[in-house]
Amino acid sequence: MTITTLTSRELSQDVSRAKRAAKDGPVVITDRGKPAHVLLSYEEYQRLTGNGRNIVAALSMPGLSTIDVEFPRSRELARPADFD
Fold this sequence. Notes:
By secondary structure, the chain is an alpha+beta fold. It contains four helices and three strands.
């Protein structure tokens, strides 16, 4: 993966260069010398965001029912709320 850095001016002068570079890795766009934005290919964006999966889809994955999960019980006793 190649990380390319372009200034805001370079981006505005040659957008096609930034798009080509994004195929090989993230393109960091600086503003006054500081990183301000990152340009990614759409495929990389989907990979990073989980292809739009939500919690329901993640919990309904095949084979999930075969995984045993144990949650430790709290040793603290419940106390009534103090509203004074």
